[in-house]
Here is the input.
Amino acid sequence: MATEQPAAPSLESPLGGGCLCGAVRYVCGAVRYEINQPLSLARYCHCTRCQRRTGTASSANGLVPRSGFRLVSGASAIRSYVPPQPGAPKLFCATCGSALFSGDPFSDEQIVVRLGTLDRDPGMRPQYRQFVAYAAPWEPIPDDGLARYDERPGA
Here is the structure.
């Protein structure tokens, strides 16, 4: 029996996402966003910054062009941490602390969305693992067949 592939985000069927306080009860002021274009890429990042930001061994991220990203609500709740260069701003909800995306959704060409903040399957699986040279020693990287890069691919 074939498994049906989820529909990619589109203008007709946007993919919603948001912070914890918005996902629980759609609280007033919660951060909500929509993606109306397919992700251009998905990946796992094992860098130390992602470990510290998420409290986990890696971060699952999807890239979407800025033209396919729309902030629906909660702009006033968004805060950012701007790491030393190189590094894009890390945006999060000031109310619940949810890590939402990297990059400026109003000016950067690509927005890096945390896959765990999406409301449904984005229709794309992570394609590789980056910064594996910094992987947490307490969590072995699974043998999942994905390409592995010590740093960022192409760097």
